[in-house]
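Continuing the series of single-chain predictions for the mutant panel. This is the parent chain; the variants come on the following pages.
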Amino acid sequence: MRHPRRAAVVLLLLVVGCGGGKTIPRSSSDAGGTEGGSSGDAGGADGGLSCAPAFVEAGTREAGYAEVPVYHRATPACCPSERGPAPLTQPYPSGVADGCSSDSQCTGGADGRCFPFRGLVGPGGCSYDQCFTDSDCPSGTPCLCRSSASDNSANVCVPKGNCVLDSDCGPHGYCSPSQGCYGPPSYYCHTASDTCINDVDCAPADAGTGCPVIATCSYGPQAQRWACTQQVCCLP
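Parent structure:
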């Protein structure tokens, strides 16, 4: 049973505002949201929920209680509208998966940046912000923010799980990211059947496979619970 008195240490980072009042262009490059938004819609003048005052995920670490997830989404995301420039020197020559040569050519969406070759991150070419708040994403899908206003990563709508906020998981519930080897995480509610809560609950990963192995507490859609897994993250 979770203790009613929890000392929360919120990850406080500099607020850059909820997308800076920016409207995301709805072009073919954008992952368009729905007008109604999701249960994680960010509030504003209409009196809705307030955004999380942080660049990173809206997680809190509640000291002294091992059963509380380190990362969970108590409030909707507020992503920075500023974005760092793409690297001036690209690691690949012209003609190798390049659809652009400079940021100024990326005008098909919000905060366009040019990455001639993105490797595992995605296809080469222009990269755009997909969202600034959860309400910019399809219903039931959170917005994953870049780490800071100087980071050149894109804000993205993550693959759909079964929650956006802790409140989607019932009283005293927690909505946490379940991370695979590559790509953004999906968010799932913790359950009474979970065999782990945080990555530190899992034994260290085995070595000797020739590929990086990570031990994580992640959600299994078939088992419908969180459990420790060892993921072999080989390059494709």
